[in-house]
Amino acid sequence: MKHRFELRVGPVGFRIGSAWRGPVEALRRLYAGYPQPEGVCDFTVRLEPERPWRRALRPSVALRGDYMLPGAAPLALAHGLLAAEMGMNLQMALGQRRFLLLHAAAVEREGKAVLLTGHSGAGKSTLAALLGERGWRFMGDEFALLDPESGLLHPFPRAVSLKNESLALFGGVDPARLGPVMDGTPKGTIRHLRPPAGAVARMLEPAQPVRILFPRFDPDAARDAREVGAAEVFVRLTQASTNYVALGRRGFVALTRLVSSVPARAIDYATSEEGVRLVEEHWRG
Amino acid sequence: MAGPRYVADPPGAIASVDLEGLTALFHARSGTTHILAPPAPQILQALAAGPADADEIAARLAAGFDLAAEEDPAAAISARLAELEAAGLVWRESPSSPTSGAKATACGQPSG
Amino acid sequence: MGIVRDGMSELKQEEGASAGGFVPSRRTVLALGAVAASTVVTVRPAFAQAAGSVLNCEIPVPSPDKVGNYIASDGTLVPPGTPGAFAPAPRPLTGEEVRAMMNHGPTPSGIDPEAGQAYLNYIRRLQAGTSGFTCFASLQMPR
């Protein structure tokens, strides 16, 4: 393809090809400082015109690559960076076989990892990114990679997609870490934030999971923390994994071992500060 | 009425993990995962000794447990067997042959 | 702690029972449950659910292989011109629009409200393998 970018994120190498220059330039700026993949890339993302004539006329970016899903709607060229991010997510969701994928954020402290899992919009991305600015190592906000053999969590520190309201919480960060403002995307107005340099430098360091948290952000909610039983955690995590079934017995062993050895809590909070405090209180002991 | 005799895969074809009193179970032949509450795992275990109907299963269970049932034990066990059957974990013994050849197990061993 | 065992699962075995043995040294009560109880849950991981957040999707009504059919108010497909049935949607519906309708929100722009309900019922009836099913499945909230 005309324009190319290669990127390593944790143990995964991506090649992104694009018919347009814009998305590749935006990726290069957003992921400044990230290493190149070594050897063959694990996944290829292709940003292509929906139809050949849509490359120039009302450009429409279709998400294609090694793995594709029918019914995926194309995006406008102005949202090309978002298309590249979604393309990488799709490759992982459909093609990842080495690790059990959990739709979760993860942060690390003292060699121990905390999983933040739950529905989209529950607040885990914002919480993980905030913790990453408060002394925790940011390991990822979209996917947590569980190694079935070792039981360790591997980092996958991609840029965090932040919605309007959450962006205000990151006013003090180096502006060079922020991607372009994109209005009118399927997720509303968003901006991407590159993880801190320490998180990027340590992207190959796994960590032992010690806590599973189900955070729920609700301005009307009372602050709360309660235990969640192992069987319930197990079922909820199978719903949060895109490749549990594909991994077969390896997936079963990995997930039962995780929920048997790692306690879980549900935490409700009304402000992000409260959320950070709850994580700090409930991540061990 | 004892009802039909049921067959289960041999224990080697199943992986199970206790999760705080519930059992997570991986059925290798189908690749499906199930969560079972008592007495379902115990019923599966009882079938390891060979095909059995609800009465026979009740007898096998009674050898190791004190059975508590709101109604007739065999009726409760029949209901559990129906659930296990719907999940693909047990099936009815074929009337023509005691161990159905079509139900080849993961390790090629005959049931029972 | 959970230990994966092949064969006999770690059930309520008392100490002193032989490995893999069935008879405990002290008897435990085993409740058999009411006839109507539910003791077996098959885990059906919805790939689409987890992937839904990574996907911007749309659902054609009806699916491309059923072009030409009309949609009855209960969502079934009927021959074109059937009285009381609605013409195909003028454009595919986006996942967000369908989610809004499912939450009793507004009808998508350019869509007649009654037709919108018929389209929603059609979408609810989608089976795996039909165009749009993955998108629809991704909109379901677990439990």
Q: Give the N-to-C terminal Cα separation of chain A.
A: 52 Å
- Give the overall shape of chain A, derived from the CA principal axes: globular
Per CATH, the class of the largest domain in chain A reads: Alpha Beta
Q: Please give the number of β-strands of chain B.
A: 6
> Fraction of residues of chain B in helices?
25-40%
Look at the helices and sheets of chain B and give the structural class: alpha+beta
Overall pLDDT metric of chain B: 85
Task: Describe the structure in your own words.
- The complex is a heterotrimer of chains A (285), B (112) and C (143).
- Chain A folds into two domains: 3-95, no CATH class; 100-158 and 195-282, Phosphoenolpyruvate Carboxykinase, domain 3 (Alpha-Beta Complex).
- Chain A is 29% helix and 31% strand.
- Chain A is built from nine helices and 17 strands.
- Chain A has helices at 21-30, 80-95, 124-133, 164-167, 197-201, 230-239, 244-247, 249-261, 272-282, and strands at residues 3-9, 12-18, 43-49, 60-65, 75-76, 100-102, 104-109, 112-117, 137-140, 144-146, 153-154, 160-163, 182-185, 188-193, 208-217, 224-228, 264-269.
- The longest helix of chain A is centred in the N-terminal third of the chain and has 16 residues, at 80-95.
- Chain A is globular and about 60 Å long.
- Chain B has one domain (6-91).
- Chain B has helices spanning 40-46, 54-62, 73-86, and strands at residues 6-8, 14-19, 22-27, 32-36, 65-68, 90-92.
- A three-stranded antiparallel β-sheet of chain B has the order 2-3-4, with no helix packed on it.
- In chain B, helix 2 crosses helix 3.
- Chain C starts with a strand and ends in a 6-residue tail after the last helix.
- Chain C is elongated and about 70 Å long.
- Chain C contains four helices and seven strands; from the N terminus they run E-E-E-H-E-E-E-E-H-H-H.
- The chains are: A alpha+beta (285), B alpha+beta (112), C alpha+beta (143).
- Chains in contact: A-B, A-C, B-C.
- Chain B binds chain C through residues 11-12, 14-19, 23-25, 32-42, 45, 48, 61, 63-71, 73, 75-80, 83-84, 86-89, and chain C through 2-12, 22-24, 27-43.
- Strand 4 of chain B pairs antiparallel with strand 3 (40-43) of chain C.
